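Two proteins were folded this term; both appear here.
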Amino acid sequence: MKINSLDNLDRRILRALQQNARLANNELASMIGLSCSACLRRVKILEENGYIKRYVALCDAKKLKYPFLIFAYGTFLEEDHKIRERFIFEMKLLPQISECYLISSDYDFMLKIHVQNLEEFHQLKKDYLNKGIGIRNIRADIVVKTIKNTTELPL
């Protein structure tokens, strides 16, 4: 099943599940206009073909005492495959880093970081975001207000 082979029903299923992944199959089937068995079959196919990667709970960072959201941009000291692999390995281990991207810009990477306070960020930067894993420099932008934050893809 390719993206072009998704029909209107598949797209409606995906839209509904992006908004509420806890929908019971009978609720989803009723919303989409399918029988329960046909709906379940379509969802299973979407899962098996990787359109649905996993189901998650989206937590409120502020209620969990992580009020600071920081986007950090950095450059590497040099173009070295081993250093890059170590950086990737280290970033996957740090729970404060929720997203990490290698990017094409004036910077080499971008991080989305959740911390409880600025001291925690300072410590994270000092201990992990340094020359020891091949980082030349870091620029950090602290989010002061979130205007839009969604996990939904346009379907």
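Next, the second protein.
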Amino acid sequence: MDNRIALLSIIVEDAASVEKMNTLLHDYASYIIGRMGIPYREAGVNLIAVAIDAPMDSINTLTGKLGRLPGVSAKAACSNVKRNASCASKGSLDGSANAAYTNVGKKTNA
């Protein structure tokens, strides 16, 4: 199956959903290229961008699961570039291939 490169845009309005959101992202860590989170304290929301290289089914499933969390909105913007899955980076499920993978609200040294 071909992989697609996509950018997931996530807006978190309910801090109670952060742990579940991080668990979902951890479950898909082998597909994640990188992640950037911006806490917008004045508005009480967190803005997150996740770059992913995965099969379309996985991109759609992850986006749907994230969007069903209370207080979380998620959308995916997909490139038209199709990549053979054997060319995509294969990280381990524990996220060790993504040293910069961080959790929202947790300070890291990356």
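The helical segments are 18-27, 56-67. Strands lie at 2-12, 32-40, 45-55, 72-84. These notes refer to the second protein only.
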